[in-house]
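Summary: Need help interpreting a holo structure output

Steps to reproduce:
1. Submit the protein chain below together with the SMILES for S-adenosylmethionine.
2. Request a joint structure prediction with the ligand placed.
3. Inspect the structure token block that comes back.

Expected: a single structure record containing both the chain and the bound molecule.
Actual: see attached output.

Input attached:
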Amino acid sequence: MSNWYDAWADRYADWTESVTADVPFYVGLARDADGPLVELAVGDGRVAIPVALTTGKRVIGIDASPAMLAQARIRASEVGVELDLREGDMREFQLDEAAALIYCPGRSLLHLPTWADRRRCFERIAASLRPGGRFAWNAFTFDHHVASAIDGQHGDAPLPHTTHYSVGDNRVDIALDDGGTSSLWWATKNEWLGLLDVAGLQLEALYGGFAGEPLDDHSSEYVFVARR
Ligand SMILES: C[S@@+](CC[C@H](N)C(=O)[O-])C[C@H]1O[C@@H](n2cnc3c(N)ncnc32)[C@H](O)[C@@H]1O
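--- attached output ---
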């Protein structure tokens, strides 16, 4: 899956140019954090760079894609900020010092295929946080209407691809015309809450948007904040 991002890492910034609403949300959490900050699936630093710039704090960024990390390095140096970038899998990461905030923007947790993968990741997060430390992430709400509407559709950005919806597996595949598929395994609210439960983390807030909108029947995004 990391190879999928490797194939177009140099276009990721263009593709996500309009994705900005989450940045102030994560920056706000980072400002409140008294201790190390960790972004899981940091990608090209889209969020980590403004977090580091605005707070002046060190951000550890973990990602499985060498090409995305290379983009993060270039983009960080362009604005004169240093990120502590580490190639690795978010299911297996280890820290030398417990974190005050671990966050995972960009719906990246949906790349983890199974409950067991997510549980491993949540357990690593719980083990890596200080007491009282926070974990925040966002993900699409689970919407069959959206998945059905994009099933079989061909698109051109970031690279020519076709989308496929697997109903039974709650999975959306994005298959590049030139080969390589990335999948998103959608999860329900109760799956996320169950993961917090098994990891021993407490739900602090669940919003329907990055400005703190309440989650309701029409919300398209889960925005979670949890505490150890
Ligand atoms: C949608 S991008 C998000 C990047 C960035 N956080 C953002 O919000 O723009 C998803 C990222 O997840 C990374 N990724 C996917 N699975 C991963 C895993 N198991 N461990 C670490 N990174 C992973 C990919 O390499 C990619 O950079």
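--- end attachment ---

Reviewer comment: The pocket of S-adenosylmethionine is lined by residues 1-2, 5, 16, 41-43, 46-47, 62-65, 68, 89-91, 105-106, 108, 111 (CB under 6 Å). The chain is about 30% helix and 30% strand.
Status: needs-info
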